[in-house]
Write a structure and sequence with these properties.
The complex is a heterodimer of chains A (547) and B (631).
Chain A: H1 12-47, H2 49-67, H3 70-73, H4 80-93, E1 97-108, E2 119-131, E3 134-140, H5 143-162, H6 171-178, E4 179-182, E5 185-189, H7 194-204, E6 213-222, E7 239-244, E8 256-262, E9 270-277, H8 278-351, H9 357-388, E10 397-400, H10 401-415, E11 420-426, E12 430-433, H11 435-451, E13 459-467, E14 470-477, H12 484-487, H13 510-520, E15 524-530, E16 534-542
Parallel strand pairs in A: 11-13
Antiparallel strand pairs in A: 1-2, 1-6, 2-3, 4-5, 5-6, 7-9, 8-9, 10-12, 13-14, 14-16, 15-16
Helix pairs in contact in A: 1-8, 5-6, 8-9, 9-13, 11-13
Chain B: H1 2-22, H2 30-34, E1 40-44, E2 50-57, E3 60-67, E4 73-75, E5 87-89, E6 94-101, E7 106-113, E8 118-126, E9 130-132, E10 143-152, E11 155-162, E12 168-172, E13 178-183, E14 189-195, E15 199-204, E16 213-219, E17 224-229, E18 235-240, E19 248-253, E20 259-264, E21 271-277, E22 282-289, E23 293-297, H3 300-312, E24 317-323, E25 329-335, E26 342-347, E27 352-358, E28 371-377, E29 383-389, E30 399-403, H4 420-427, E31 431-436, H5 445-449, H6 458-472, E32 476-486, H7 488-499, E33 506-510, H8 516-521, H9 531-537, H10 545-551, E34 564-569, H11 577-589, E35 594-599, H12 609-627
Parallel strand pairs in B: 30-31, 30-32, 32-33, 33-34, 34-35
Antiparallel strand pairs in B: 1-2, 2-3, 3-4, 5-6, 6-7, 7-8, 9-10, 10-11, 11-12, 13-14, 14-15, 15-16, 17-18, 18-19, 19-20, 21-22, 22-23, 24-25, 25-26, 26-27, 28-29, 29-31
Classes of the chains: A alpha+beta (547), B alpha+beta (631).
């Protein structure tokens, strides 16, 4: 086990354990969130019914808190015509008001029969109900209408007799005297001001006894059928209905969930009755659970994705490690050839007792050549690693294209007298680049063109031209060409096309190096090639014109 | 970049300099404007030996006496609960005055003996009112005449009270419809005015033993205000607009009620006041309230005196407020639009003027603003008069404006004088605009009656037209207009912001009229004669219910959208507090920013100094917040 520590490991058990763990967590999370949603919906079913009640009773509350106290604003000056108008506006706004009964009341000094009480008399009773787009009114005088009046006038008498006019009556006193709420009926008597109550008390004392004061009383007969249920939560309550407060059916199948809330005020004999089948609520639970489940799933997928990415990175690292290993292997081989030649030459020099002039020159040439080769190899290696690590900086120097190209052609012509090189330059004279890096490019690409050509067809055409913002260098040879399937690989490090031309002395680094160089100079390198016809390498660099 | 900063800095400093200049107007503290007058109500004793006046002492207005013999001042009363508001001298050197004990709902009458400086209560009634009648009598110096509704809250009877013995004797019981009494030079009441609601009747009797006989019957559109008996037969002087549009000074035959001759009239406005000397029994002058008050003299002695005074106080209004019986000492009161008023003692014999006191010495006239009469054409072509007070400073255009419609249409109008509220607002940088909309008093019968049943109608149009005129004249900044008023003015403010939500930024309402049903119902039973008139001026709550409902703000809270500031005294007899509470609650429910200030121990107008100061502080802040006045 000791040696395992230094070895790249792949542990499938670990990966599987991880997968199982997060999958279990995923399932548990789904389960818990579902049951929480279920509870939540159940709670909402039992609590949101007050909201529905509020919305449903809003018109009633408006009537009770705003429209009814408006009667007091008229200060007892309402008559049959204005009461009809008032009733009309009530009917138009509040459809649950079935009927209003208007009492014009006169208040005068106590009569002889009841000397201690105010004389509260009904002048007229009118009954209004909605009809033909307006209001239908009729004069009334039935006993039932009087019973309301008798009750309210008794209260008013008591109130006037006991009132303390030094201060405003309390809300409670006002409510108990001037309002009467019965099932589906509200009776309201306009609330006299303190001054009026003083005047009423004066009447009791027989002061200013000829005065007659007016009060208004209106009874509102309500009808629950005019009350519209506003189901603000249709997703929770499938059926909302208005039922008598005692309504309580037996649900044998237990299919429905039930909630209820009683109405306030004049509708207190009714309640709102909410029912929903279990299935209905389950559908709601599912609907609410959907986004939560999706979220959990998303997190799950995300975790899996991250796991996979980590796994992939590890794989890449292993490959890189192998690559470096190969690199060292390769280079060791490269170094081995010249070193062994030097070694042989060295041992020959030592063993031969006497050297002929010819031998001395021969060994000297061998040593010199092999040392150069080693030097070249090391230079390439160094600059390559430098480039890879961005350790060198590109210098920008002015380059005269023609001189630059011609310089390299001359060098190669000396080196390889059988190398035929043509060149042409279009639309560019000078530009800015690093001459050393560009030189390396030229060297490599020209060397390749020579190396991978048949001895009779060692030809190269160099073409330089300017394309808008770029400068393109084309190196077209008539060599052996590159197979289609090889083209994608030739720029990779240590990739060697297997053929007769690179049996010795190629590390498979040349084009990879070129690619690195071009990248470093913010350019691009492409290749077009056909087997046995030749290849064309095109280097495109950003054009930076000489100023 | 640096250049830009320099330019910017330069601009800012210029602006700062400019605004410094603008701010030269000193902000006069609120307390200076609205403090209780220091020394006021100066009176000469009938023998000319004493001057009495009221001055704050122990936190209330109390009586002070200055002896002219040695020039020494003495405190005469020391009330700490309620102030002395008005008083009068008797020929026996007693001072009588009435106090309204608001919190106790009581009226009290006191007498002060000038020799002992002792005050004694001579009369007190609960839940009623006492009014002193200007009726002193040399023959019976201890008898004062007063009206009191003790017997019946709806009726004021005339009593004679002996302030030495406290003996109270009914002199003239009120059959129920007498509203005014006019004593003659001998203290006898031979002329009274009765009102049965719509009609006013002048009744006359030749002597105390004879019964009153109606001599003139007037519709309430006509008015006859007796001034004094001429001394010739039963003739009397009166201000009358019978058979003419404007009120003129006439002589009327008391026995027949026939107008004998017209003495004086004025084109533009009513004769507002006639001065009559009861000592010399002669008419002195009449005042015609045009753009500014104009005096028309009827007596040369008095004209000479006024002329010489006018040379000393040019540009000021001069009035005699008190005189001794011999008429060689006078207390004169001078005022302008920028001077609340100064009292002088004028001794005709020596031609000597002695300054007695200022109503408000904290006010420096040069710091205040001129009240300029203006006029404009309403949409139907009627000429409407008003006053415009521009804030100090060179800027006369694009000003923030506070519109102040007056209260009590048909009975009052705005006049040219010092008005503390107007000057306060002008000092704070607002132009103040007052409109004598149609229906205002003082411009003749036609103008007055053109406002009948126009509450919420043409009266409001006149105010709106005035504001539009100000905008057309480029005086008003159309984005900075507030409306502020009390009573009917408060109604105008509320109506203005409901009907023209874009015109006004905000409204300030004092004891506002929010419900015309209540307004009509609020006519207390002892004002019952006026009820019928109210129906004609505003509307009948039964037959005109729709119209009254349409114009009453209490029914239309949904139309109000601008910030409101509402003041109300809880003891205001004419207000219905629970109704106002409901109104405010409704507004708040509709998210209208309302500041509602209800003071428990105040009647209509805030009397308590602290409450008053607080009110104006609130108004200042409220207007500042809502008008965004750059200072």
């Amino acid at each position: 086990m000791q040696q395992d520590k230094n070895v790249y490991r792949k542990n499938f058990v670990l990966i599987i354990a991880f997968l199982i763990l997060i999958s279990v967590t995923f399932i548990v999370a789904l389960f818990i969130s579902y049951s929480l949603t279920e509870k939540y919906v159940e709670n909402e079913f039992n609590s949101k019914n007050s909201e529905v009640l509020d919305q449903t009773t809003k018109p009633y509350n408006d009537l009770f808190y705003n429209t009814i106290p408006e009667i007091t604003f008229y200060q007892g000056f309402l008559d049959s015509a204005s009461a009809a108008k008032y009733s009309d506006s009530v009917f138009k706004t509040y459809h649950f008001v079935k009927r209003t009964t208007f009492y014009a009341i006169d208040i005068a000094v106590p009569t002889a029969t009841e000397p201690r009480d105010l004389d509260v008399r009904v002048k007229a009773i009118y009954q209004f109900s909605p009809g033909n787009g307006g209001v239908v009114g009729s004069r009334k005088s039935s006993a039932s209408d009087f019973s309301d009046f008798e009750m309210m006038s008794a209260r008013l008498k008591t109130f006037v007799a006991d009132a303390d006019t030094a201060r405003e009556p309390t809300q409670d006193q006002k409510f108990k005297t001037f309002y009467d709420i019965e099932p589906e009926k509200i009776i309201y008597l306009n609330i006299p001001r303190r001054e009026d109550i003083k005047h009423y008390q004066d009447l009791l004392k027989n002061i200013h006894s000829n005065a007659v004061y007016a009060q208004n009383m209106i009874t509102f007969t309500l009808d629950r059928s005019g009350l519209i249920v506003k189901n603000t939560h249709p997703e929770l309550y499938k059926n909302v209905s208005i039922r008598p407060v005692v309504y309580d059916p037996i649900d044998n199948d237990n299919t429905n969930i039930v909630a209820e809330s009683p109405f306030p005020g004049a509708f207190s004999n009714y309640k709102l009755y909410f029912t929903s089948p279990h299935d209905y609520l389950n559908a709601e639970v599912n609907r609410r659970f959907m986004p939560i489940g999706a979220m959990v799933l998303l997190i799950y997928i995300f975790l899996i994705l991250i796991g996979w990415l980590i796994y992939r990175n590890l794989n890449v690292n292993i490959r890189l490690f192998k690559l470096q290993y190969d690199f060292i292997n390769n280079f060791t081989h490269e170094f081995k050839t010249p070193v062994s030649v030097i070694k042989i030459a060295g041992s020959n020099l030592r063993s031969d007792t006497e050297l002929s002039e010819r031998q001395r020159k021969h060994y000297g040439k061998i040593l010199d050549e092999e040392a150069d080769r080693l030097n070249d190899l090391m230079n390439t290696l160094l600059s390559f690693t430098q480039l890879e690590n961005n350790a060198i900086k590109a210098k920008k120097e002015e380059i005269v294209v023609e001189d630059f190209v011609r310089g390299y052609i001359d060098t190669f012509k000396i080196k390889y007298p059988d190398f035929k090189i043509n060149f042409s330059i279009h639309g560019v004279v000078k530009f800015y680049a690093d001459p050393v890096l560009l030189g390396s490019l030229f060297q490599n690409l020209m060397e390749n063109a020579y190396k991978y050509s048949n001895p009779k067809r060692k030809e190269l055409a160099i073409n330089v031209k300017k394309n808008k913002k770029d400068i393109a260098f084309s190196f077209a040879d008539r060599g052996i060409g590159i197979a289609k399937e090889e083209i994608t690989h030739i720029f990779k490090k240590f990739y060697k096309v297997e053929n007769q031309y690179n049996q010795q002395g190629s590390a498979g680094l040349g084009l990879a190096f070129c690619k690195e160089l071009v990248n470093f100079m913010d350019g691009d390198i492409t290749v077009n090639s056909k087997i046995n016809e030749g290849s064309e390498f095109i280097v495109t660099l950003p054009y930076e014109a000489a100023e | 970049m640096l250049k830009k900063i320099y330019i910017w800095l330069f601009a800012v400093s210029l602006f700062a300099l400019g605004s410094c200049k603008e701010h030269k107007v000193r902000q006069i503290p609120i307390s200076d404007f609205f403090k209780t007058p220091e020394e006021s109500i100066f009176r000469l004793s009938p023998d000319g030996k004493y001057i009495s006046y009221t001055k704050p002492y122990n936190g209330q207005q109390n009586l002070f006496i200055r002896s002219l013999a040695d020039g020494k001042d003495q405190v005469a009363t020391a009330f700490t609960d309620y102030p002395v508001r008005d008083y009068s001298w008797t020929y026996s050197n007693q001072i009588v005055f009435v106090q309204d004990a608001v919190e106790l709902d009581q009226f009290k009458m006191f007498a002060l003996d000038i020799n002992t400086l002792k005050t004694r209560e001579v009369l007190s009634i609960e839940k009623g009112r006492i009014r002193l009648l200007n009726n002193r009598n040399k023959q019976e110096p201890d008898i004062v005449t007063l009206s009191m509704n003790k017997r019946d809250p709806a009726n004021f009877d005339i009593y004679r009270l002996n302030i030495r013995t406290g003996a109270l004797k009914m002199y003239l019981p009120n059959p129920g419809n007498i509203t005014e009494w006019f004593p003659d030079d001998d203290g006898k009441i031979r002329l009274v005015k009765s009102s049965d609601g719509v009609d006013e009747t002048i009744l006359f009797r030749p002597d105390d033993k004879s019964p009153f006989k109606p001599i003139i019957r007037n519709n309430f559109r006509n008015r006859v205000e007796p001034v004094a008996f001429t001394g010739e037969k039963d003739n009397f002087y009166a201000m009358s607009n019978v058979n003419q549009d404007k009120t003129t000074l006439v002589e009327i035959d008391g026995s027949s009620g026939k107008e004998i001759k017209s003495i004086l009239s004025c084109n533009k406005a009513d004769i507002a006041r006639v001065d009559y000397s009861r000592n010399k029994r002669c008419l002195e002058l009449a005042v015609c309230e045009e753009e500014k008050p104009t005096k028309l003299f009827l007596n040369n002695t008095i004209k000479t005196m006024y002329d010489s005074l006018a040379r000393k106080f040019s540009g000021s209004e001069i009035n005699i407020v008190s005189r001794d019986t011999a008429e060689d000492k006078f207390i004169i009161f001078i005022y302008t639009d920028r001077n609340p008023g100064t009292y002088y003692l004028y001794e005709t014999v020596a031609g000597k003027l002695t300054k007695l006191g200022d109503i408000n010495s904290s006010i420096k006239p040069e710091e205040l603003c001129a009240m300029k009469p203006v006029s404009f054409k309403a949409r139907d072509g009627l000429l409407i008069n008003g006053y415009l007070t521009l804030p100090q400073g060179s800027n006369t255009t694009g000003l923030p404006v506070v519109v102040m419609p007056h209260d009590q249409p048909w009975r009052t109008r705005d006049t040219w004088r010092y008005i503390d509220e107007v000057q306060f607002l002008a000092n704070r940088g607002y132009a103040v605009f007052q409109v004598n909309y149609r229906g205002s008093a003082g411009y003749g019968k036609a103008f007055n009656s053109s406002g009948f049943k126009q509450a919420g109608g043409k009266i409001q149009d006149d105010i709106t037209d005035g504001v539009k005129w100000l905008i057309d004249q480029k005086i008003a900044d159309p984005d900075k207009i507030a409306i502020y008023g009390g009573g009917f003015g408060g109604f105008s403010a509320l109506y203005g912001v409901s009907a023209h939500p874009g015109l006004y930024n905000c409204a300030v309402v004092q004891y506002g009229l929010i419900n015309f049903f209540t307004y009509i119902k609020d006519v207390p039973p002892y004002f019952k004669p006026r009820l019928q008139m109210m129906y004609e001026m505003i509307g009948n709550p039964e037959t005109d219910a729709e119209q009254l409902r349409a114009i009453s703000p209490v029914f239309h809270t949904e139309k109000i959208r601008v910030p409101l500031l509402i003041f109300q005294g809880a003891r205001d007899e004419r207000a219905n507090i629970s109704e106002l509470n409901q109104f405010v609650r409704e507004l708040k429910k509709q998210n209208v920013p309302v500041t509602y200030i209800l003071k428990p121990n105040e009647r209509t107008v805030f009397r308590n100094e602290h409450n008053r100061m607080e009110m104006y502080e609130q108004i200042e802040k409220f207007l500042d917040d809502n008008m965004r006045v750059k200072r």
